[in-house]
Amino acid sequence: MDATLHDIEGRIWKELLAGNTHAAATLALRQHGGDVQRFLSNRLRSASQAEDAYLEFAEKFWLGLPTFRGECSIRIWMLGLARAAATKLSRRAVMRREVACAPGDEPYWQMVERMRTTTALFQRTSAKRRIRALRSQLPNDDQTLLILRINRELSWNELAVVMGVVDAGADAAELARASARMRTRFQAAKTRLRKLAEADGLFAPTEP
What we know:
Largest sheet: none
Mean pLDDT: 78
Structural class: mainly alpha
Strand content: under 5%
Shape: globular
Distance between the termini: 40 Å
């Protein structure tokens, strides 16, 4: 974690310990909300699904923040919530819904809405659209793993936590084993995507 992120984590914790949940949420969303949105827009197939998932994430984030214990970084925890929201949306069709705003929390929800509407939800180049279409043919977990490793640049340890392979409080040996499994799964998913791209004519076939 670089110095800037470490400083922000410290500020978030300071607000949480002081009982200032709204201030802590504001800091966390300003720093990591864009990351969450980009993950969801890459992970899901339509703008409406990404929006629904973000609202689901925002609700879980707001309700869960007061009980956050810091077993992992705030960014990793938020991406884990986003992954859970994306998985839920992928398993069943979800209609857009309104999230009720608790009294006194209007500035927070206004910020959520602003971030949701001002962040671009889709990459626009033809090649990236084709890659995304091919990636959507992979199992959900493979899609999520590729996005978090390639687009969000999570470490293997962070991936193991976000993907639910190991708990955030796991010991070093367990975390190392889980990280190794993440590497293996990632390489397999990347190989499957490469084969799809070759069959689609996007890449030249790999030499035997």
